[in-house]
Amino acid sequence: MAYFHLRLQPPRPTFPFDGTSEEMAAMALHADYWRAQAKAGTAIAVGPVFEGEGAWGMAVIEVADEAAAHQIADGDPIVQAPFGFRFIVSPIRSLIQREAQTNAE
After folding, report:
1. 49 - beta bridge partners?
2. Distance CA 59, CA 46 (A)
3. Helices (H), the chain
């Protein structure tokens, strides 16, 4: 298995603050998609990063290879919608994760 960082580039730097109702409806489908990826164990962390006057999205995923990472990115409803969103997919060569805590700790 391999780890990848996905950066969702919005169609303009001021998104989501000036999002249209159609864009925001597609973003709801986008959120549902990533909740399902998290539940399936593919997505480790997903969320918006607020920077300057807008935001971009990030996800850290664990998949078999880079082709699988692109398949996950390309399957996102917000990327499939005609609004101009796109992912930048970058490999993570080494990832340190927190250890799972047990109830005894």
Report:
1. 56
2. 4
3. 21-40, 66-74, 77-80
pLDDT value at residue 105: 56
Query: Whole-angstrom Cα distance, residue 91 to residue 79?
Result: 20
The type of residue at 1 is M
The one-letter code for the residue type at 88 is: I
Residue 41's alpha-carbon distances to 2, 5, 15, 36, in angstroms, are: 13, 15, 28, 9
Question: Does residue 90 have a pLDDT over 60?
Answer: yes
Phi-psi region of 84 (alpha: psi -120 to 50; beta: other; left: phi over 0): left
Which residue is associated with the tokens 């997903």?
46
List pLDDT tens digits, range 3-51. 999 999 999 999 999 999 999 999 999 999 999 999 999 999 999 999 9
How many whole angstroms separate alpha carbon 25 and alpha carbon 91?
30
